[in-house]
Please model this.
Amino acid sequence: MSAQARPPFPAQLTNPAPHHPHWASLQADIEAHLKQTMPLKQPHEVFNPMHHLVFSAPRTTVPALCLAACELVGGHRQEAMPAASALLLNLANAHAHEHLLLSDRARPGDGYGANIELLTGDGIVPFGFELLARSDDPAHEKSERILRVIIEISRAVGSEGLQKALYMENTLEDESDGEDPRHVESMRVVVEKKEGGMHACGAACGAVLGGGSEEEIERLRKFGYYVGMTQGMLQRGLLQGLEDLRNLAFNQLQFFKDRGLDIHIISTFINF
Model:
């Protein structure tokens, strides 16, 4: 297959999320929180590019899903706000690194050199974990939850998660033929590590911080995984098995519906 006929690849993790009023509301709250915790201030040569990189990166539903999962298990969205913010910061960093690897794309840090983009992207990741650590309140005995979420995010974005997916994706674009079955299978692995893994992480983190039971956490992790897989496969034109993924996602939500919980908002993440 020629390069012109090949499906768009690689797909950005931070592809603009499908529009939905609930998602827009959750995303607006996350961005307002970040603007409060990361204001433009001196030294401008540090904070201006940081601010630009974070708020110019295309959006994904991962942070919003974190808040929705927290609310589903009975928590308040503010309890998961630091985790949602940390996820958004990690995704903005991934977006910057994707563009540094692929020079034919428009850069997210217009007006800043590649060296500034790299340093800024690397700087916002520890800031995300700082937000999580600062949210700890010993009086409410949430230290274990926060530590668990830090570990969840670290694993999802680390060498066996998002970073591995970015490496595989870059290699596949250079070396593989889109018609080769091995190429398609490798793309599926990328989606599993990338969109699937990050959405699974977001949903699980929200459930943990909302005080969900282990069963609720794992069901929402699976739900997030199916949401991410569906989005990632759609972005790459891999349509086989999408209906099965949606059915599997709704099966996880049925558990909550059977217990009288309102699944309307969170179901919109798969019912788009």
Notes: The chain is about 70% helix and 0% strand. Residues 21-267 form a domain with the Farnesyl Diphosphate Synthase fold (CATH 1.10.600.10). The chain has one domain: 21-267. The mean pLDDT is 86.
